Amino acid sequence: MATRVLPLYEVRGNARERGRQQGDAAREQVEASLAQYRELLPHATGLNWDEALVETRKFLPYGEVAFPGFVEELRGIAEGADISFLEVWALNCYEGLMQPEQAWGCTSVAVSGDLTGNGHVFLAHNEDWQSEDADHVYLVRSIPDEGPSFLAMTYGPLLANIGLNACGLAVAIDSVYPTDVRAGVPRILCARAILAARTIGEAIRACVPKSRAGGYNHLLADASGELYNVETSAATHEIEYGQSGWLAHSNHYLSPKMQALEEPGVYAGSNVRVNRARRLMAAQVGSVTVESLQTLLRDHVNWPDAICSHEDSGDPVHERTQTVASLVMDLTAQVMWAAPGPPCQNDFVPFPLLAGGPKAGAALCRKPTC
């Protein structure tokens, strides 16, 4: 295995200050990501860079109304990295500009403590994205003045959006492709809002703000073992409860209601990945461990479009994708095991949510108590 480890940056304070600290610490990743998208965006969206900046301004009023604090965070990232806020904003709206044929692949699974070897609740996720972004991935440990502390993954100038918080909540997101996209609240802001939630109910509501621009699937878990898939589009959503004690999802809708809104396509890779994940999960029910989930995330059935995804050098540069990061989150221990992608080539390294461990994390949840 390689010894590469994802960078970890700790930020504190109010939204603007935390953004500044993230932008300053991750300046190298931010600048490289920005340069990359200036080149790739016209191929992926049909817009040149200046046109994209104009187009994504349409999303800004919606974001400022729904989540003004997260917009402040993005303004801080721009200031910390010494780049234009509109360029940072544009990349956080990128999926709202993509052509329908640009489909990404991610795989997520969650399991309650009833089915694990040590009684812990786990959420595991492979983040599949543009291969060019593989070197731009990093982790953010955030200790805000208000709301729960969290540990999450991101890349370039994006808001941290996949991770776990001190109230025992975790989220993984899978891109889906509804036909009802519109100008509205960028979907990445909804994912970021989940990390600010204190309860699973708050987390579900965070997935579906009014006037959202599109949708993700949000795989949610809490430390008590409550598991939900929340499939969303711009105008509607469907909630699946993890009745059997585990859930899996990839990049197509599972609900017939949501499938009626899905962009036409084959989704072969997505189907193979979610079905493979289901089979691997079913085989280890009752004995799931951090190590068995890491093995699942390294699975190569349907190579190169497997759960552990590798780029195809024959694809055009803007269509080359791979697993850029791999995460296993232990909600009970408040630890994230993270590996740069593809995970078959790298070790998983444990990162505690907070240096003081679970008790320190609980102290920074600020959840009301009875």
In short:
32% of the residues lie in helices and 24% in strands.
Q: Layout of helices and strands, plus pairs?
A:
Layout: E1 8-13, H1 15-25, H2 27-45, H3 49-56, H4 60-66, H5 68-81, H6 85-92, E2 107-111, E3 122-130, E4 137-144, E5 150-155, E6 162-165, E7 169-175, H7 187-194, H8 200-207, E8 216-222, E9 227-232, E10 237-241, E11 246-249, H9 256-259, H10 268-283, H11 290-297, E12 321-330, E13 335-340, E14 349-352, H12 358-363
Parallel strand pairs: 1-4
Antiparallel strand pairs: 2-3, 2-11, 3-12, 4-5, 5-6, 6-7, 7-8, 8-9, 9-10, 12-13, 13-14
Helix pairs in contact: 1-5, 3-6, 4-5, 5-6, 7-8
Task: Note down, in words, how this protein is organized.
This protein is an alpha+beta fold and 370 residues long. It has one domain: 4-Layer Sandwich (Penicillin V Acylase, Chain A), CATH 3.60.60.10. Helix content is 32%, strand content 24%. It is built from twelve helices and 14 strands. It has helices at 15-25, 27-45, 49-56, 60-66, 68-81, 85-92, 187-194, 200-207, 256-259, 268-283, 290-297, 358-363, and strands at 8-13, 107-111, 122-130, 137-144, 150-155, 162-165, 169-175, 216-222, 227-232, 237-241, 246-249, 321-330, 335-340, 349-352. The protein has an eight-stranded mixed beta sheet with strand order 1-4-5-6-7-8-9-10. Strands 11-2-3-12-13-14 form a six-stranded antiparallel beta sheet, with helices on one face. A hairpin with a 3-residue loop joins strand 6 and strand 7. Helix 4 (60-66) crosses helix 5. The N and C termini lie far apart (48 Å). The mean pLDDT is 93.
